[in-house]
Each structure stands twice: as structure tokens, then as C-alpha cells.
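BUG: 3D viewer hangs when loading the predicted structure for this chain

Environment: internal workstation, default settings.
Expected: structure renders.
Actual: progress bar stalls at 90%.

Input used:
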Amino acid sequence: MEPRFALTENPVGAKFAKRFGTTSLAIVQSSLPKVVQEIVSLRVSQINGCGWCVDIHTKELAAAGETAVRINLVAAWREATVFGEAEQAALALAEEGTRIADASPGVSDDTWAAVRKHYDDDQTAALVALVAQMNSANRLAVIVHQKGGSYEPGMFG
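C-alpha cells produced before the viewer hung:
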């Protein structure tokens, strides 16, 4: 598949992308740990098949010093021993919040309770916003066939 459209090279697309990126500052500047932000972003992107976003978040995790084992096991986190309870709660929320369209009941009460056990109000708000925003970002990239492979860590500042 070849890329269909360079969204940011169009005036409307560029305006949208700028505003979309600005909304992420609330998440990035929150107290939600950066590694949690990245593993959640990676898991949502894996589920949605977004090569561009998988490329971004695997490289950002590596640049932040995460091990290859942890990065590679995000896809199978339920069957791994390398994620703590708080990370598992965030990954469960990411999966359940992403799979809503798969006839899933949404986020379970057990998952919500685990999230609330480990994250304060601000972190919970950031986590919910992150799952929603990553799903949107994945859909934008998948629709236009934006390819992974060219991202450099820190590219977006």
C-alpha cells in the first residue's frame, strides 16, 4: 500500500493536525508517567494496526531506555511478568477502551477499579484522554495509509 494523502500538506489537514497535537499537551504535561503513556499508546496502536504509531511509540520507548523485552512484550502483556500492577491496569483500560467497536461491553468495572487504585484523578483523566486520542490518531494514519519506519525519536519535539 502506498500512502494515499499527505494530510499535513493540505491547509485544512495541517490546521487540524496542529490543533490535534496541541490537545496532547494536557496528557504529555500531566503526572501520568511517560512510560505508561508510551506503552498505552503502543498497545492501542498495535490493536488498530497503525504502523506509523507503532513505529513512533516503540522508538520513543527505546530512546527512553526501555528494554527490548518490555517493548516486545507489550503485545502480550497479559502473558508477561515485566509489567507492574499499575501498568497492567493502564494496558487493560487501553485494550478495553479500544475494542469498544468489537462488540465489547467497553471498560469493565474490574478494570476501572484497578485504574482507580493506581492512578489519581489527574492521571486517570490523562489516561482516558490518551486512549481516546490514540484511537483517533491511529484512525487518521490508517485511513491515509501513513507508513511506519521513518520516525526518529523526539521528532515531534
